[in-house]
Please model this.
Amino acid sequence: MAKISFFFALFPLVLSSSVTKAQQVSVYELKRADFSAKFTTYGATMLSLILPDKTGKLNDIVLGYDSIEGRVANRIGGAKFTLNGVTYKTVANDGKNTLHGGRRGFSDVIWTVKSYKRDSHVTFSYGSFDGEQGFPGNVSVSVTYMMLGTNKLAVKMVAKPLNKPTPVNLALHTYWNLGGHNSGDIMSHTLQLFGSKITPVDSELIPTGEIIPVRGTPYDFLRPRQVGSKFDKLLDGYDINYVLDKSSLKHLRKVAVVEESKSGRKMELWSNMPGVQFYTSNMLKNEKGKDGAIYAIHSGLCFETQGFPDAVNHPKFPSQIVNPGEIYRHFMVFRFTAH
Ligand SMILES: *[C@@H]1O[C@H](CO)[C@@H](O)[C@H](O)[C@H]1NC(C)=O
Model:
């Protein structure tokens, strides 16, 4: 239990209100050589990812603060949407809006382990019920974390609506710091992000519906540059959805390449989703993390591949409605190297 105590510390209120005695929080490890990762049934969350730097030194590059979000990750403006003539009110947990699927999202429930092999994969599943946080219909959801070789991690998120059409937009909310989770801020990480457009937002971070080019703005990461190099031109960092550029790969788009010079670590990410929320942990405020770490503002980077935020209320954005008989499939592939 000691291994997951920090996690309880991060979510004490949620755990006491939503976890019953019958539900088990447990931890599963995937490991191949020096590449290892831990996951918990609480939120199907990645707790750690440990791998060597350029000298062979092992570090954990995941902040102890991460999860799969709710049925619809990111924001739903006004906490409501209309589908087939019916207006659904979802739980507002971010002012008037719904963030990450509501107050008790998929990150706050206990998942069941369906399949586990230590040197290969772990699959978590969750049955979301009709009306959960205001969303229509039963949905069966699964998340598989898979080790490919000794330096790749694939994530597969699948959702199957069972009886009603529903919006689905799952996202992995891992906070990355390639220097190590306890190594300070991410300002000097180098980032290349393959999105030449963004969906701008209003003061409540709800998309205005426009899609605008990044070229010449502080949002332009088309050529690699330091994450912090244009922070002086921003309010408090990045928290924005990029429209990912099409790539020549058949199913996957290249999302981002991140590098950290001291450790020499590099992380590349591909996904089949049309967008990615790039977030620089602008709201971390000296949170107590694992191993005694204190996470200050900007100590992690998030790349939440996804559909566009509030797509349910923007007919011009790619639809997130999935009908019974259809399957939502979301892939992410991470490749890590160190030189
Ligand atoms: C939907 O979920 C409810 C509650 O878990 C269950 O009673 C019902 O049988 C489910 N219906 C379908 C079609 O899966």
The CA atoms of residues 137 and 163 lie 6 Å apart. The chain is about 5% helix and 40% strand.
